[in-house]
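Chapter review: from sequence to fold.
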Amino acid sequence: MAKKEYFRMRRTRPVDDAVPRLKDHKVPVIELICRVCDRHSAHERNLLVKAFGASVSFAEIRRRIVSRHVV
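The token string follows.
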């Protein structure tokens, strides 16, 4: 009998279903607001999906965007 091969994908981080994710919000424009630094921006959802993927959390999007703007 031949041995079956399986492709297994491991998650690099634990997934918390209570965290809001991009795939949960279907509005065409998403506004990100930081109350601490008073920074705000609006992004088209489809561009965010292309850049980060639909399953990314908003916290991760914020971290990646802020890391690009640090002076």
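Two observations follow directly from the output. The longest helix spans residues 58-69. The CA atoms of residues 19 and 62 lie 13 Å apart.
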